[in-house]
Design brief:
By secondary structure, the protein is an alpha/beta fold. It is built from 11 helices and 11 strands. Strands 6-7-8-9-11-10 form a 6-stranded mixed beta sheet. Strands 2-1-3-4-5 form a 5-stranded parallel beta sheet, with helices on one face. Strand 6 and strand 7 form a beta hairpin. Helix 2 runs antiparallel to helix 4 and helix 3 packs antiparallel against helix 4. The relative contact order is 0.10.
Length: 320
């Protein structure tokens, strides 16, 4: 057991009530790591809740413990554990618990993490936060089938079902270990990737149909409007993963997805094969990983399109 694992287990054992919190607009790694840490705390005999500042969707209702996700039972907690959240402001409304918790643990794989915990375990080389949690608790007896199922979910989704360039031999090794612990990979993959609503499929078709190419096909832009969401009876949560369709176009080196948000805001995601899109996102106050980053931009739709494409072009130019 490593020194940081010992320190984290000691902090959990010294607490009575634990709140595990991920970032706003949670993805599979965020929810998987939050639930995994909740069950690890419960395996240590502690009362624990897992939350994110977002409306629950049915995308992850197959996960153990998701029925009680986002249902904090107390007004204060002894220990606050943040997972997969690089900046404390992205904890949303649950950030208020940072001020009352006796101890704070920050576990994350984003290299831009600002280390807001009293105990910080940040590994920017990990493919997911679930990889970090597996590394921490492997061999402790705290990873049972339930925890393993949550960890596999985060590992799979953050590597794009083991297709993104953050997929390493280690990621496959961990996936194999989790399967040996009882994870039913076939059933999980069905739930994660082959169980979409008809509304989501309709939105996907509209989003693909609206893709625009720039720079001789090297940049692909997908703009998802409020009108598109409304006509398909979808929300912005249903746009998760749609950018992968733009990224899959032959010759595209950077893909951009922008989605209307209330208040004249646009949620923008960048994906790249080699270019540093984290730098592009940082131009607008965002951040992330070299090949996957995001930001929020306020402005006119066409101005935002122009600005994001220009930022992507600048990232491409640095490859020359």
């Amino acid at each position: 057991m490593t020194e940081i694992t010992t320190e984290i287990i000691s902090a959990i054992k010294a607490s009575d009530k634990v709140l595990i919190c991920g970032h706003i607009r949670p993805d599979g790694d965020c929810i998987g790591s939050a639930l995994a840490m909740r069950f690890i705390c419960e395996n240590l005999g502690k009362t624990a809740d897992a939350v994110c500042d977002a409306e629950k969707t049915d995308s992850f209702d197959f996960l153990p413990g998701y029925d009680s996700f986002n249902a904090p039972r107390f007004n204060d907690y002894d220990l606050f554990i943040a997972v997969d959240c690089a900046i404390d402001t992205r904890l949303g409304e649950y950030r208020r618990f940072l001020d009352t918790a006796k101890n704070i643990i920050d576990i994350d794989h984003h290299p831009t993490n600002n280390k807001y915990g009293k105990i910080n375990f940040i590994n920017g080389d990990a493919c997911s936060t679930c990889e970090i949690i597996f590394d921490m608790f492997e061999g402790t007896g705290l990873i049972d089938k339930t925890v393993a199922t949550c960890l596999y979910t985060g590992l799979s989704t953050d590597t794009g079902h083991f297709m993104h360039n953050n997929t390493t031999a280690k990621a496959f090794d961990i996936a194999a270990s989790l399967c040996r612990m009882g994870v039913d990979a076939g059933t999980l993959n069905q739930e994660l990737y082959k169980n979409k609503s008809f509304s989501r499929i309709r939105l996907t078709a509209k989003a693909i149909d609206g893709i625009i190419l720039f720079e001789n096909g090297q940049i692909a832009l997908m703009a998802i409007t409020k009108e598109m969401l409304d006509s398909c009876n979808c929300t912005s949560d249903d746009t998760e993963g749609l950018i992968d369709y733009a990224s899959s176009i032959r010759g595209v080196k950077i893909s951009i997805s922008m989605c209307d948000q209330p208040g004249g805001l646009f949620r923008v995601s960048f994906r790249s094969k080699k270019a540093d899109v984290a730098a592009a996102a940082e131009t607008f106050g965002g951040g992330g990983h070299k090949n996957a980053a995001g930001c929020i931009i306020k402005g006119n739709r066409y101005d935002v399109m122009e600005k994001t494409v220009a930022a992507a072009k600048a990232a491409l130019d640095k490859l020359s």
